[in-house]
Amino acid sequence: MTTLRNKPAYSRPLAHQTAPQVSNRGLRGAVVFLGLLCGFLVVGLIGVRVHYFLATRALATEKSNLTEERDRLNACLVKATQELKKLGMGPSNVVFSASLVTTTDWTYEGPFDTDVTLIFKRVVTNVGNGYNSNTGIFTAPTKGVYYFSFTGCVGTSGKLNAALVKNSELISAIYDTRGTYGCGSNSVTVQLEVSDTVFIRLWNRHSIFDQSRLSTFTGFLLFAV
Q: Against a cut of 0.85, is the pTM above it?
């Protein structure tokens, strides 16, 4: 028998293999894209800075405008206040009350050789700041009708004569000759202009006493006119 030999398998030569290459056209496209992207970013940053600059300048301008408006309103307020003072339209609430001395000890004042203005030193109320505890004088801050009352107790002279005075005009008075510790009082309504003054005058050779709550001077605004 004839033995058939297996023929060796036919093998084809491998084709020549090369590394992949990137075309120049693709590289140029990538570079262009990156350039455009950077350009857009730069433009965006410039736009942000310009917007920030404009916003900052607008805020500064607005602040300046608000400052000018505030100054203008303050000037108007000052002018309006001055005009109201000219018209006598001061505080709507005016009230004061004071007693002659600040101590609870029995204290005598007078008699004096001349007439004196009594200074009521212990201030209980002074709304509107019309009363001056250093001078004993009430100065009207508002044009209107006021109510005043005052009480005095006789000191060591054995007699008391005191008057409520508006500017230099005698308005009302108290008079007591019952001896030491006797008390008298009076009250009155008075129309005042702005800066008119009201005070209590103690006549010469008369005296008064107090222990911080007996001899008093009170006044308040009833209504403005």
A: no
The 3-state DSSP class for residue 181 equals: coil
* CATH class label, 95-224: mainly beta
- Domain ranges in the chain are 26-87, 95-224
**200: which strand partners?**
164
Question: Which residues, at least 6 apart from 33, have a Cβ–Cβ distance to it below 8 Å?
Answer: none
Instruction: State yes or no: pLDDT of 180 exceeds 80.
Output: no
Longest CA pairwise span in the chain (Å): 181
Residue for token digits 């301008």? 61
Q: Which residues contact 39 (CB under 8 A, 6 or more apart)?
A: none
Strand partners, 185: 151
> Residue 117: what pLDDT?
98
8 Å CB contact between 173 and 161: yes
